[in-house]
Every structure is written in C-alpha cells, then in structure tokens.
Design goal:
about 140 residues; mainly alpha; two-stranded antiparallel sheet; about 5% strand
Length: about 140
C-alpha cells in the first residue's frame, strides 16, 4: 500500500497539480494586492473618496454611525457587506481574465510548436531493407 502511494505521488500530473496550487495561492495574493492597493483606490476616487470595501448596510442591530465593516461585525449586528461582495466579484473577474490570457498564450505556443513540427521536413529514412536487398541482388547478378 505504501508503494502504491509512492507511485501515485510520483506521477507527473499529481506533481503538476501541486505546483499549480502553490502558484495559484501566490497568484491570489498578487491579485488581492492589485485589487486592494491599486483598483480600490481608483474606484474610491471616482466615488468621491469612499472606501468601497467597507460599504455595507445594517440589516438588524445597533451599529455606531460611520463604523467600519469590521467594527459593525464585532457588534454582532447583521450587516449586508455589499462592498466586499463587489470587490470579490472584481477579484474573480481579474483572476479569470489573467488565467484566460495565460491559457491563450500557452495554446498559441503549443499550436506554433505543433505547426513547426508539421512543417519540418521529415528526415529521409534512407532505403528500406527491401530496396537494399534488391540492390545487392542486382549487384550480384552482374
């Protein structure tokens, strides 16, 4: 059973998946920073300096006026955090677009590689065994 597990782990697709997950986690951190540090301030600028991430509506409970989303949640009030949800959608769209561009680029590279292999002239394998035997026969017949 241990050997089967080692064989499973040693397969290339399992290792590729592990590398993909690790890179995906690092990529998520980059996109989160991109949205939080670059895109949110631009959206806030167009909204008159409002911090879009902390936008929420109180459904029930008492929340002090002007409290941040985190402070509202700490009071135990039911809050509808629509700003955080919209930022999650923006995060998703950015990640989906970047993954789309990456897959598109990889597919173009694969297509170019396949096309180059097709266009490459096939190496002349030389005469077949039958051709050589016929040639020897003809030489011996002389």
């Amino acid at each position: 059973m241990l050997q089967e597990f080692k064989d499973f782990i040693a397969k290339g697709n399992v290792m590729d998946m592990a590398v993909g997950i690790i890179i995906g986690a690092a990529f998520t951190a980059i996109v989160t920073s991109l949205v939080g540090d670059l895109i949110n301030p631009i959206i806030g600028l167009f909204m008159g300096g409002v911090d879009f991430t902390n936008q929420y509506s109180v459904l029930s409970g008492d929340v002090p006026e002007g409290a941040s989303l985190e402070a509202a949640r700490e009071t135990g009030a039911a809050v509808f955090a629509w700003g955080a949800f919209i930022m999650a959608i923006i995060n998703f769209l950015i990640i989906a677009f970047v993954v789309f561009m990456l897959v598109r680029y990889v597919n173009k590279v694969k297509e170019a590689s396949a096309k180059a292999e097709e266009e490459a002239p096939a190496e002349d394998p030389g005469p077949s065994e039958i051709d050589l035997l016929k040639e020897i026969r003809d030489q011996l017949a002389k």
